[in-house]
Amino acid sequence: MRAVYIDGKDRIAVREAAVPDTGDGEVRIRVQQVGICGSDLHYFFEGANGEYAVREPLIPGHEMSGVVDVDPRGEFAPGTPVTVHPARFGTEVPGTQGQPHVWPGGSYLGSAATMPHTQGAMADLLVVDRGMVRVLPDGLDTAGAVLAEPLGVALHGATRAGDLTDARVLVSGAGPIGLLAVAAARARGAAHVTASDMLDEPLERARTMGADAVVRVGRDELTAEAFDVVLECSGAPAAISSAGAAVRRRGVVVQIGMVPNTPQGVNLAPFISKEVDLRGAFRFREEIDEAVALLAERPEIGAVVTHVVPVADVHGAFDVARDSKVSGKVVVSFEAHGHEQHGD
Fold it and tell me: 17, 51, 258, 309: which has the fewest Cβ within 10 Å?
């Protein structure tokens, strides 16, 4: 079978790999589409994602969809369209009861955090624990379901914010996660959603996701204390500082965008003087199930995908995904007739 390997900084290739066998309680999936995530970009262009360096060939990818290939137990019929929850959870520690996504010792598809690395979904065939499998409902095909994982991330950020009914929400950063955060805020009942970014092209995509207003950073001003909640999706220190100024007194800022594992310069004074809650959001727990249902209900969310690129041109796919002026979500296709789509 074909598999994509990142061997280190700026080194990526499609190579033949052994067909994986299913063990006890496992299901093999024939992969059709895999989304390129920010962590995948870091592994390729920098050789590391935060503190986790590529130390052996890594198959990236944790945003995927496909069809069941083999289920030894027969619960899932061959050809059943599915997506997967990419996590295997670790061991509970005090203070984390019922929150397995933050337990230490777990693993995530396509991650160099473990050694050996946890190989990901960017291959023809993928074996996962059966509990990770999510069957797609009527109205959702595998092309749409490739967004289930990143939409789950956005929905978990909304969960961390609390009740968004009638809230004024700022989504900071209009990359793929930010675009899905706009959709998530809408789904959770926000009254008004503003998106901010440094570029015009992502902001136009945010409008298609339902943003009521957009703010071009460097050109437009964010109104101080205008938002009940900020979903910060960029991870840029300057954006985190701006979130503290933009949120109202005793409001909530949820940090969804990952930041480097190094000290960062952020202005915390507004967080203190306004008693703002700054909350982290890490991956998700079960929000992927809500994401699957929402994608079936609102197929227009699929517009986040701007390019579908055949696996044979995976290097080109990563180059396009890196350029947010050109692309939203970029998907690598393992189907026989993968094709490129342009959403701009």
Answer: 51
Block residue for tokens 């900071």 = 172
DSSP assignment of 125-186: EEEEEGGGEEEPPTT--HHHHTTHHHHHHHHHHHHHH---TT-EEEEE--SHHHHHHHHHHH
User: Does residue 195 contact residue 168 with C-beta atoms inside 8 Å?
Assistant: no
Task: Tell me whether the CATH fold assigned to 2-135+298-333 matches the one assigned to 153-280.
Answer: no
Contact 318, 175 (CB under 8 A): no
In angstroms, the CA 182 to CA 163 distance is 15
- Give the C-alpha separation, 192 to 263, whole Å: 33
May I ask the CATH architecture of the domain 153-280?
Answer: 3-Layer(aba) Sandwich (3.40)
Q: Where are the domains of the chain?
A: 2-135+298-333, 153-280
What lies within 8 Å, CB to CB, of 273 at 6+ separation is none
CA gap 70, 27 in Å, rounded = 6
Whether pLDDT at 337 is above 60 = no
Residues 248-271 have pLDDT tens digits of: 999 999 999 988 778 889 999 999
Give CATH superfamily name and number for 2-135+298-333: Medium-chain alcohol dehydrogenases, catalytic domain (3.90.180.10)
165 Cα distance to chain centroid: 24
Beta bridge partners of 330: 307
